[in-house]
Amino acid sequence: MISRKKIFIPIAPTLRNYLKQYNREHKLPVGYSQLKYYIDSVAYINEHGKDTLWETVLYPQDQIDEIHEGLKRVYARLKAGGDIKALNHLYIERIDFCSFGNSHPFRIKIVNRYNDVYDYFYIKTADASRVYGLEIEHILSPNQLHYLTDDDTLVEEHIAGIPGDHFLSLYEHRPEFNPKRIAKEFVKFNERCFIRLLGDMRAYNFVFDITPDFDAYQFRIRAIDFDQQFYEGNKNIYMPQYFKENFPYVQMAQKLFNKEVIKQYQLEERFLIARRLREERHRVKSLRDVLVKEELSTPEKVYQLANELADHYEDVIFSKCDSMGHIIDRSLKRVLMSTYRK
């Protein structure tokens, strides 16, 4: 069971130094605390007339230009390394706020005035669990992530894709979508989440990135919520297969694959993670040295997860772990040892 309210974990000085080392930490012209002081809001209703749970926020007239200019500079830092040459072509169309969830994000819609192409980015409270989740995703998954931190502020790029809970209705009307490719990606995503201990991957917390290939469509599932990075004690929280929202994907895999095929896809994903660990070994070591010193969950949850993983893997070393950092370290070492044991 997932905790009703996850505790907020501030960024420790050791993690801050790591973020500076890898060019994640920057002094930003607009921060989360500044955006909180809006004077009014209007519910954002989508084109289908449905309440999105986001509210478009309004600021005092004498502050709008300063906030918008600062947000454009944040976007330039996030997307172009701070190059401000293109800022004159951009404008902020809308700032939305969502009180749902742990991070209480602001979503900024930014538009190119020459061609009306738009993009989104997010400004959130800088929670250490989420930062670790983003960093591990960047290192170990097939997907690179761009994000920035500054004091209490976390800036994230938008991860494009079709939400997992909406994808099923789309799939039903697209006969060219091969269900075996979809099921294969879910098996690999499930394995990836479990190894790196990313929890709460219900269908609305991941998206499908669809790429047309020369003879078929390729699918990749991408996580979009990283609040539950190694926080809970129940190991099943880190397996998307156990959430009822994902049951159609589980059924698809069970119908199309036998145990041997599922095992093959799991091994493929473990090999890819092991290869990334080797390629990024210096960065992984730097992150590990910070992680093992952090208190990222309660002692009770650490004890529960350590013992459940010890039973699952039949590996007594897990039961000796006294922090989430040590648990994830052991999980990743097992991948390396099992893949490169020869």
Describe the structure.
The protein has 342 residues and is α+β, with helices and mostly antiparallel strands. The chain has two domains: 13-157, no CATH class; 162-339. Helices cover 44% and strands 18% of the residues. The strands form two sheets. The chain has a seven-stranded antiparallel sheet with strand order 1-2-3-4-5-7-6. The protein has a three-stranded antiparallel sheet with strand order 8-9-10. The longest helix has 21 residues, at 259-279. It starts with 12 loop residues before the first helix and ends with a helix.
Q: Can you give me a brief rundown of this structure?
A:
The protein is of the alpha+beta class and about 350 residues long. It contains twelve helices and ten strands.
Radius of gyration: 21 Å
Please report the distance between the alpha carbons of the first and last residues. Answer: 39 Å
Number of helices: 12
- The total number of structural domains is 2
Structural class: alpha+beta
Fraction of residues in H or I helices: 40-55%
Q: Mind describing the biggest β-sheet? A: 7 strands, antiparallel
How is the largest sheet built, in terms of strand order?
A: 1-2-3-4-5-7-6
Unreliable stretches, pLDDT < 50, 5 or more residues? none
Q: What is the succession of H and E elements?
A: HHEEHEEEHEEEHHEEHHHHHH
Mean pLDDT: 91
Specify the overall morphology. globular
Report the strand count. 10
Strand content: 15-25%
Tags for this entry?
2 domains; alpha+beta; 12 helices; 7-stranded antiparallel β-sheet; 342 residues; 10 strands; 3-stranded antiparallel β-sheet; single chain
